[in-house]
């Protein structure tokens, strides 16, 4: 699903909530996935509370229908709990949404059957009064568990039908009381189902609102990231642009001051590029720039910053590398462009595209600043051009900066 269609699905679900509450298929699956861990935990806690209260009803059995106490122990302790606890364990471990709802709904129905069996087995005069508490079973399913509405509806209808069946056939119960009990359980079913429906509807709405916010925030962050990437990237070569290079250069320099490390800089220029443009045209010139840029990016060490400084000039920045390593790297870059053998018939010789590289390595010390490094590398490039191009010239030592001329190491 694309970002836009996802956003419109959320809007549609928010403005057209369905009576049966379910979302469209994909969103429903996501809703289940996102809410599952929390819902499983809530269900297990609710189930344990229900099991505890259900067991405590043994006290009532003992006090007002002692003749079925052991039957009650048997049903509650050896049927209902062994049925319910493994279900809670399975939900705790994680099962599909429909399995979870079905199993939890089944505990409601089994609880109702068991309670009815205990009640109608007793001949005690007030045993039937217990039947008025059966609405609690619906409260457990519809409110405490908060079963999904369709499951709450199904288990409630089944539970009410079971209860009505037992009540009708239970002779010790006066007819008027039976009528009252049936009316009472039906009313409790309706009330708890209405509450269940509202709970689920507001849970789903809250989920959609949260999803919409998360989606909008993510979208805004992505747009910002794209904008900032655009503002820092050269559109033609996709290398870092001058702005990014300037920022990184300062950053590297500051880090080098703190770490007492060296900073290496290469200034790279495509040879006779004006002639290339004149011969092949500006568009082909752009292709050439792209090829050289991607070759530099591919062959430069991953620890380096490769940027387009402007026009047909590139820079490669590194930190913590000794003079020799920067020199080797510069020679490798020069060689990799030469190896492309991009035809350049606009110049006399050689008839392929080459680059000249000027490099310098400095350790920031008192009185030495970043622009001195840049000037040194630029002067080395000038020297490389002067000596015939397609070569690397490195400033051999920082001392050269303070002298009249540059100490040059020519490859
Ligand atoms: N196609 C294209 N050409 C560019 C671009 N930016 C700068 N140039 C061209 O690059 C050429 C640079 O030429 P010069 O600075 O004279 O240097 P050169 O011809 O490379 O000669 P040397 O540097 O001395 O080898 C100019 O013709 C610019 O128009 C660009 O984005 N695309």
Automatic annotation (TrEMBL):
Keywords: Membrane, Transmembrane, Transmembrane helix. It is an enzyme of class 2 (transferase). Residues 261-397 form the GGDEF domain. InterPro entries: Diguanylate_Cyclase, GGDEF_dom, Nucleotide_cyclase, Rev_trsase/Diguanyl_cyclase. Its EC number is 2.7.7.65. CDD domains: GGDEF. NCBIfam families: GGDEF. This is diguanylate cyclase.
């Amino acid at each position: 699903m694309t970002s836009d269609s996802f956003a419109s699905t959320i809007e549609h679900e928010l403005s057209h909530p369905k009576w049966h509450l379910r979302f469209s298929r994909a969103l429903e699956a996501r809703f289940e996935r996102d809410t599952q861990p929390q819902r499983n935990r809530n269900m297990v806690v609710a189930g344990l509370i229900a099991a505890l209260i259900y067991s405590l009803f043994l006290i009532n059995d003992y006090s007002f229908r002692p003749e079925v106490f052991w039957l009650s122990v048997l049903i509650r302790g050896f049927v209902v709990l062994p049925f319910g606890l493994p279900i809670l364990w399975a939900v705790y471990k994680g099962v599909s949404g429909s399995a979870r709802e079905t199993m939890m709904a089944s505990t409601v129905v089994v609880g109702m059957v068991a309670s009815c069996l205990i009640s109608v087995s007793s001949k005690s005069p007030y045993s039937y009064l217990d039947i008025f508490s059966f609405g609690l079973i619906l409260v457990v399913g519809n409110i405490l568990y908060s079963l999904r509405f369709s499951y709450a509806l199904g288990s409630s209808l089944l539970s009410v039908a079971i209860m009505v069946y037992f009540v009708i056939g239970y002779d010790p119960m006066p007819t008027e009381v039976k009528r009252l009990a049936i009316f009472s359980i039906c009313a409790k079913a309706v009330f708890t189902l209405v509450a269940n429906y509202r709970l689920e509807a507001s849970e789903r709405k809250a989920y959609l609102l949260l999803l919409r916010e998360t989606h909008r925030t993510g979208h805004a962050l992505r747009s910002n990231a794209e904008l900032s990437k655009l503002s820092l990237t050269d559109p033609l070569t996709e290398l870092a642009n001058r702005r990014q290079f300037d920022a990184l250069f300062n950053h590297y320099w500051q880090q080098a001051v703190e770490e007492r490390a060296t900073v290496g800089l290469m200034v790279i220029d495509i040879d006779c590029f004006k002639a290339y443009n004149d011969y092949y045209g500006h568009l082909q010139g752009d292709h050439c720039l792209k090829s050289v840029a991607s070759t530099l990016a591919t062959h430069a060490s991953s620890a380096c910053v490769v940027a387009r400084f402007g026009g047909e000039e590139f820079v490669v920045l590194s930190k913590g590398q000794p003079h020799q390593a920067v020199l080797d790297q510069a020679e490798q870059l020069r060689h990799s462009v030469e190896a492309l053998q991009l035809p350049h018939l606009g110049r006399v010789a050689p008839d392929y595209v080459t680059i000249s590289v000027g490099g310098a390595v400095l350790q920031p010390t008192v009185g030495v600043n970043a622009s001195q490094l840049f000037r040194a590398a630029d002067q080395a490039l000038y020297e490389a051009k002067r000596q015939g191009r397609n070569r690397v010239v490195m400033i051999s030592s920082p001392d050269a900066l303070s002298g009249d001329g540059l100490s040059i190491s020519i490859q």
